[in-house]
Write a structure and sequence with these properties.
Blueprint lengths: L10 E5 L2 E3 L13 E3 L2 E5 L5 E3 L3 H9 L16
């Protein structure tokens, strides 16, 4: 698939770790940030990057409920 910005076909996918911070509001001035591990598609010509927030994390963004202790997909769940 070609880059949506410059049309360059040379893109590659990378593993990413992204922290999403909720906007501050008067009712809740601080909320724990949400850590997500999406696949990041990067264009090698213009540097444009895009990703899709995984479904479970998207639900957390919508509701504002962030589960404690995010786990990386590469980390076993048995801690």
């Amino acid at each position: 698939m070609a880059c949506k910005k410059c049309g360059e076909p040379e893109q590659n996918q990378f593993e990413a770790e992204i922290t999403i911070h909720f906007p501050e509001s008067l009712n809740e001035p601080w909320r724990a940030p949400l850590l997500v591990f999406p696949k990041l598609l990067i264009c090698f010509q213009c540097g444009r990057a895009e990703f899709t927030v995984p479904e479970a994390e998207l639900a957390s963004l919508i509701t504002g409920n962030v589960a404690a202790g995010p786990v990386s997909p590469s980390t076993p769940n048995n801690r």
